[in-house]
Amino acid sequence: MVNERALVQTAATDPFALVSARLEPWLSQRAGGGAVDPVVRPSDHADAQINGALPLAKQLGCNPRDLATEIVESGQLDDLCAALEVAGPGFINVTFADSTIDHLLTEVANDEHLGLHKSSEPRTVVIDYSAPNVAKEMHVGHLRSTVIGDALVRMYSAAGHKVIRENHIGDWGRPFGMLIEHLLDLGEEVASSGLGQGDLDSFYKAANAKFSESEEFQERSRERVVLLQSGNPETHVLWDRLVAMSTAYFNTVYEQLGVLLVDDDLMGESKYQPLMPATLERLEASGLMSESDGAKVVFPPGFTNRDGDPLPLIVQARTGGFNYATSDLACVIDRIERLGADLMLYVIGAPQQQHLEMVFAVAKMAGWMPEGVSAVHVAFGNVLGDDKKMLRSRSGESVKLVDLLSEAVDRASAAVEEKNPSLSDAERAAVAEMIGIGAVKYADLSTDRVRDYVFNWDRMLAFDGNTSPYLQYAHARICSIFRRAAEEGVSSGEIAVREPAERALGLHLLGYPAVVADALESNSPHRLCTYLFELAQLFTSFYEQCPVLKSDGDTRSSRLAVCDLTARTLSAGLGLLGIDAPEQM
Ligand code: ARG
Prior knowledge:
Elements: H1 15-30, E1 40-41, E2 48-50, H2 53-60, H3 64-73, E3 81-87, E4 91-96, H4 98-109, E5 124-128, H5 140-158, E6 162-166, H6 175-186, H7 188-196, H8 200-213, H9 215-229, H10 233-257, H11 276-285, E7 289-292, E8 295-298, E9 313-316, H12 324-338, E10 343-349, H13 353-365, E11 374-380, E12 383-384, H14 401-419, H15 425-445, E13 453-454, H16 457-460, H17 468-488, H18 500-509, H19 512-521, H20 525-545, H21 553-576
Helix pairs in contact: 2-3, 4-18, 6-8, 6-9, 6-10, 8-9, 11-12, 12-13, 14-15, 17-20, 17-21, 18-20, 18-21, 19-20, 20-21
Bound molecules: arginine.
């Protein structure tokens, strides 16, 4: 159906959309006006199934099989289809004509975007992701947020939207008094060598230990918080150093991960501090604010605690301090009013669901989130170890991301050495990087994000199954076909799919834009993963059943063209997930 606000433009090369577009006017006229969705869906019995006759027949009070027959006999799909058959209570099974598939594949092959077009109504999408905390280790939850957020950034951008990345780091709050004092005690040099090497946890823990042991340190820390909040220049410089040391470390992780985040994307909690008093004033003016135990709160309807009492969103503590909720409210205002966001995505773990729902509810009540602007919590589950408990290192600590990523690359390097000993050291290192990092990202992206997943090296690095190495291998294999084709002096030509295996592959290739649309609408990168996995499987059976270089003439050049389109689709799809596709491995 034509949806004005769709995030991805319906592809002109999608045979499903083509059938839909053909039938819509006829159905609408038959219904006596109004839009009617033909409901064209994949089918196990044919290339597609049209289901729209059933609801329409109900609406018109006629027999659905008769209506389906009428649709078939109207002849409007005849040139696109080889067969149309009324089935069951009134479905229409559709078999596309080979010529339709050939024609559409040719168009896609000639299009550098593979049928994925830029939206004619681009939205401004603010994506809040990664968001580690200063002077604290980045944990696997931040890895998930970073990897999922990065994939969404790439997908929304590819669909033509204006994407604004925001890394909402935790860089403000009471602990900074203690952290700054600890920094002073250690001396900057010592502190920076620890923090710079990613030893964030020991820094934080040492500060914390001192805080609980020494009253003198507590006192200093409290005074320091006051100095920080009142804008004392010296304190600000120290705070700045602390933040800079941590963000430099975060950057090394981002670089190793190959995500798009840069310093310009930093938009930490501290940035919203100056906006908080005005946020509170606006809440006050809207008449939503009340007092509870001396704190300023808002009660969004529908939120209750365990006893069934209304749950407040605390926006100012009794002591006058602002908190996480206040900064997130200021942040909503900033994103909508300064950045012009009409879609805000929060890539944050599932435990923060209630916090976010309350923030969104209050923002709506206050009138800050007008019609047409939406906020979505892109929630995700936990990363588990083999014991099905939260992933921990052997010593029981939370896993350090840098260690995890270098282990991934080491393991990939060993696997590549075994699989392709002829690669030079430099080639192997580059390929291992792509495979190792890709495997970690894909393992994260390929399960429905709201579910937990088990982190398992052997599984994620396997060269078969729904893994990144399997997809990368399919791509590399096609590249090797083309290296041989070049040696033999043969090239691709006009596409004409005939064998069932190549026809199935061709049809699947045409579904790429629709799958990206589907993944975007639900902010679910795993749907793209599933598609790519199926694509690699269909390619494998095609390659087993349809000789490419051993065939000749038009058949060979058509098959080479299908191979080429498959490789480009794999590479583009992996690219949207932030994963590289090596040409050999
Ligand atoms: N720093 C927070 C954490 O580590 C995540 C912040 C997410 N973004 C936000 N706007 N609340 O849990």
